[in-house]
Task: structure prediction
Amino acid sequence: MITIIVPTYREASTISGLVLAVDSVMKEAQVIYEMLIVDDNSPDNIVEIVTGLAREIPVRIILPSGRERDLSLSVLDGVAGAGSDHILVMDADMSHPPEMIPEMVRTLDLDDSRFIIGSRYVSGGSFDRDWSLWRFLNSHIATLMARPLTECSDPMSGFFAFNRKLIDLEKLRPIGYKIGLELMVRGKFSGISEIAIRFKDRTVGASKMNFAQQWKYLRHLRRLYLCRFGGWAELIHYGVVGASGFIVDIALYYLLQVIGFEHQVARALSFWPAVSWNWALNRVTTFGERSRRPKARQWIEFVIASLIGFTLNWGIYFVLTSEFSFFDSYRILALVAGVLGASLFNFTASTLFVYSEKRG
Result:
């Protein structure tokens, strides 16, 4: 048996066609199934439509409450309420071909330790050529950004099947619409099997893709990179935040001089907004998944660590240029060495002390 989960929001116009098409395909393939429509409280008549279909077809509707509207969370609600450990997820807009479901089910039955995905980018797969250039680029750039996380050629696909026993619902942290990528990264699957599909663009209704969803995708990617690569991802992220703080520091340093401050005073003042910028950005991004601690105390700790790091930075530069003629001749290398040493110290202090989960 397979449970087919379809997350919906304002899909009343397509749901009847999808349910009837899936039922026809499954009867012909003689596959036992149930279909769960998980609707985010759409302002339409989808409940009445599904209730009517349920008289003849094994379909039922779930109406989650007490949470924000979110496609990924809808899928997880469906997984929790499924009557089978074998799960298949597909969209409601007819973009995923129902006729491919039996092959995906057979592949899952042969080895349910693997994650089965309907892919547009393997041999035999394709997507709608009527896509605009913007949508084409958006999809491919998003795919490239996710490639380091998984061996899958189409990590953006929303058409997939898996064994529920190989995921831990309590440990999943999806946001947005790419729940398949979340499952591939956090699940305990032995590998990924891709089945070629022809992806069809929706013909009814409007796409839910907008800037808010794209922002959620970037936030989701950050979570998954931290999950997959751990400390290395944090180190790179910390470095990027530090670089942005350096830009803030330099910009304020020159701005303060433009408005009349002496350069020594400007240098002393520009440090504080820059270090505060780094602290706040690290709090919500680099270490955003960690337990939050009181802001004022954590800021003071970050400033102290940064001052020690700055002292280390200057000390390395001083020793190298004073004791080694090579570095005295190539002072930029001594400067870089000081920055790297201070950065490693600051990252270590932030990881083990300032943002430590043990102190949450």
